[in-house]
């Protein structure tokens, strides 16, 4: 073992105390001289030990010989998970479309092959959760546990999981990366064949069943993450392992909205220095797209939103001009074309409104303009524009998660925060304890603030 990643709340799973000396010494150091007895008394499926943060213990961990069964090696992690038990979890269940979530005691099954059980510490609300909870233009699937923007710590891992261990800090992502399919192997795509976003699936891939239940009744998953829950089970490919020094209450919002908006501009629209960019929708995703335009050196960033009070906040994110389509007689694409001598160089749509999608496309300059769609449409929406708009050499693109590969790229987005190149704090306008999760929905429905952090321990 080269180096044991150690941090102050490192968690060790012990599943079995072998009589081999390395293992015994390790267990006794963690649990005291009666380690074997404690093991026999307490546990059937493994014991979680929180390591003390002291130097002699750190040195001990660093010197453990993996061949001696020292608890941090691959074998031990495998062993520790084979008999994992169900866990009780406080979770927010959506029983019916549009009805307040109910905090319930939910049973969370152990992770199966290639799955991971995660203790969620912080989660936040993105508009995608709200669309599927309202289920007005989407397929309803209830009862369900929503949530996909979050940060947590690996609690246990299933068979075959080798690159995550209990104690690792992770961000769950709604669209995964198996690392083996054609998409994962392509430099251009993040649309993993196995784990790409699927909003209609409410079960795990392994056995087509849910890991959540209340008195035997299954509760459905949402986009493979279901983070409105103290414990959740995800496929290993839906988790990005991040720097344990990154504060999860801040970087949790990088697991969806902020990376999506930022990547939509930087990775997909790719504005050149000095260009003009229009951003439709000034929620967290749109403002992250504006932030991307600012980083790329755009000279004008035109913000478009139906709520004028969004404009003041948007100035902090580099938006230089504002248009509220409701205040104009003409279609907003014409207003923007007039402001920019024929159209913007790039536009990024972050609203979910089909009208805004068409406007975002039709407001880019002919000859070179590129429009990127990010908002999630209703299931029956159809995009309608005259083909001449395309023949005139405009480009229309769309993206999930800003074209980032979640496992490969998200850790480096977190590093941007650690290097102070990104300030997710600017997006965090509210915070509520888990018991008041419905307040986060109210803020979003009223268009108040940007992101509301939901603290699971409060
Ligand atoms: P939000 O509700 O905070 O912001 C959306 C903003 O769009 C609001 O300010 C709203 O007033 C504005 N808006 C709505 N209709 C408009 C219109 N016709 N013209 C101009 N502005 C309009 O939502 P958010 O969390 O920032 O998410 C934005 C969108 O991005 C949602 O559709 C969400 O589902 C989607 N999303 C997509 C991805 C992806 O990977 N593609 C990831 C996350 C979120
Ligand atoms: Zn894949």
The tally of strands reads: 19
Ligand roster: nicotinamide-adenine-dinucleotide, zinc ion
The coarse overall form would be globular
- End-to-end Cα distance, whole Å, is 38 Å
Uncertain segments are: 1-11, 38-54, 62-83
What's the Cα radius of gyration? 24 Å
Structural class: alpha/beta
Tell me the helix content. 25-40%
Mean pLDDT: 87
Salient structural properties:
single chain; disordered N terminus; binds nicotinamide-adenine-dinucleotide; 458 residues; binds zinc ion; six-stranded parallel β-sheet; 15 helices; seven-stranded mixed β-sheet; alpha/beta
Q: Outline of this structure?
A:
By secondary structure, the chain is of the alpha/beta class. 28% of the residues lie in helices and 21% in strands. A hairpin with an 8-residue loop joins strand 3 and strand 4.
SSE arrangement:
Elements lengths: L10 E4 L6 H11 L3 H8 L4 E4 L4 H9 L10 H8 L5 E7 L8 E7 L6 E10 L2 H8 L14 E9 L11 E4 L9 H4 L26 E3 L2 E3 L11 E5 L3 E3 L6 H4 L5 H13 L6 E5 L3 H12 L4 E5 L5 H5 L6 E3 L8 H8 L6 E4 L4 H9 L7 E4 L13 H5 L3 E4 L7 H13 L9 E6 L3 H10 L4 E5 L3
Parallel strand pairs: 12-13, 12-15, 13-14, 15-16, 16-17, 18-19
Antiparallel strand pairs: 1-2, 3-4, 4-8, 5-6, 5-10, 5-19, 6-7, 7-11, 8-9
The protein binds nicotinamide-adenine-dinucleotide and zinc ion.
The site of zinc ion (ZN) has 9 residues, from helix 6.
